[in-house]
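dumping the sequnces here before i forget
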Amino acid sequence: MAAPVRCMAGSSSRSNTTSFQKKTRSKLVSIPGTRPSVRSSSRSNTTSFQKKTRSKLVSIPGTRPSVQNGQLLLSSGVSSLDYVIGGGLAVGTLLLVEEDRYDSYSRMLLKYFLAEGVVCGHELFLASARDHPDEIMQELPSPIMDEVASLKISEGQPQPSDPENPDTMKIAWRYQNQPRVQTALASSLRFGHYYDVSKTMEPELRQTAKCHSFYQLQETPVTTGSSPLPSPYHALLKSIQTVIRKEGFDGSTPQSKTRNVLRLGLHSLGSALWGDDVCCKDNPAHCHALSTFLYALRGLLRTSLSVAMVTVPSHLIQNRAVMGRIIRLSDTAIALESFRGSEKETNPLYKDYHGLLHVRQLPHLNCLSCEGPDTKDLAFKLKRKQFTIERLHLPPDLSETVSRVSKTELAAGCGTTATGNKHLDF
Amino acid sequence: MLLDVLQGAEPGGFILIQDTVKCTGRGILKCFINAALKRGEDVHVLGFEASETEVCAGLDRSCVQKLHFHKGFPDPLGWMCRSSFTVDQLTSQHITKLIKDSQHAKAPVLVIDSLSLVLRHHDPVVISQRLQVLRKGGDIKTIISLLHSDLHLHGVVGIVSQLASTVISVAPANNEHHAVATTTRRSKSGKVMQEEEYFNVSEDMTLSVQAKLRQHGHVQKEQKVAEADPASNLTFNLRLSEEERKAKEKLALPFVFSKEKKSALLRPTPGSGRIMYEPDANDDFDEEDPDDDLDV
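..and the predicted 3d for all of it:
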């Protein structure tokens, strides 16, 4: 499934001369969201051979190759979500988000996804039935460009223990320098941007991105003919297909300047406004409509440079079998469970969080295994500047060598006196 | 929050009042009609469940002419052609025509009394699409609708509630004069506010919100939390008094290094020597820790 993508990304740079590659390199440094600048500066004095291989994969702004399987990844706009689903969204795959009860956090995720596309200069396609796509576009959060570094540092440092605080523990010296366990999930390499939810994105920035939209209520019903799909899904699929063909995301017609990625955001698919009755009946008349659509969409995504985020009101879908099929047809599936309106809202256990995040499925791309978080017990909170996913409970450490970690470090420190100083207390 | 919803209905809103056989929501619906009339707005009522006299009873006399009642009550399905409005006519084109015919200065309020009858005779999917078209059409300021939630499948109630910007569900309270209204309001940005309130509808169709259940609930919950404290009912003492705590702090724990102890140990004593030793290739360095089995 990744073969067409990688070939397409690679073929352009291979056919070009070195002068072109210098151009792309300088571009890479300037574009945020590709690689940290430290890396790119060190790259400038390596051999030309290595430059070539690097630029072969990272020729599209806002993407990077996966550490595990070399898939071309792009950020979902929420860096901790990227970490949870294995580094990011692979190009050509579909992310399913099961909406929370009031669709507030799933909508937020969709906005992050689109905002990241705007910042990275990707093309967007937004389909919605409830609100006009332009309304959603206007609500995109504003990116935080300058404060990124300081934000990162403040969050990474462990808080120094406060002697006045009665809750601080007196701890034996051998445990004093143990690393603090981080509950927030984040990868060491920064990828994607942070956004300020309280501000909306400036219209100038928003308009730099090319956005195609599809609004269900304004579409005139088309005669589907022999198609197994009901009218709105058929029209949506046709519309996506047209955009992918016309803008050359399928690789058939070469794109004019640089290769780009299409981000598809499909809001609340399967709700009644899409003319689908999976939400109101246990035995829907078109029980295969949504799965047929997703199957066709997957086919389109696999053969093009595009990524889709689909939100589905799963709490309304009565038939579990339908929901199971939908999850199987997507590559990555996560579910949001908001505490709002449930008894968990007042539970002291959950007081720091806004909801739970369930990972339903992780992508298996070109291999049998998949990269996932070490724990499935995840919770999310929406802060003003960040949507974070954290481990709710830390798993018990069952390994036999738990208490010996610091000792081996100490021994190593004693052997090489110059480096091990920080482990020594006396 | 119920009063906020009653006063300033935002344009394009869809307020859904859910009731059951145990507690009627018609009182709140009439309060909403009355409040809209008092604001000087035109109100179109699609009445399928109650007659015009019943709906108008108790409303403000001075502005009743602003109320346009579309009679669907005598013959809701149009079997005898006695109604001016039937269930089938709930389409955006027809309603827009009705509203355009009466020529208002401002966008009017549409009241559907009740949506249950419509949903029972139509595909809920089609109805929800029509409601959405009406909402987004711009001809109507607000749609207010009553829904008897116990008459429909869970899924149907779900899709209609998902469409609504504000859902008010009424339930009986222990107190016989009041009922409880749970208001869930979804703002445009996606923020959700929820509140439970006691309410009472008076004779002249004004709504009085008596007491806030929320604070009440909080107190109760806090008490529950305190009761659930596992350390409260023990045969031994887990808590420390002030003196006990001081005594505990004085105690020097083994394997803990305070600042003073550390500096004392690190201070070089006069006359102490240093061992300079550089291991060479002939040195037999034991990789294994001989004390590995001792837990030190």
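The radius of gyration of chain B is 35 Å.
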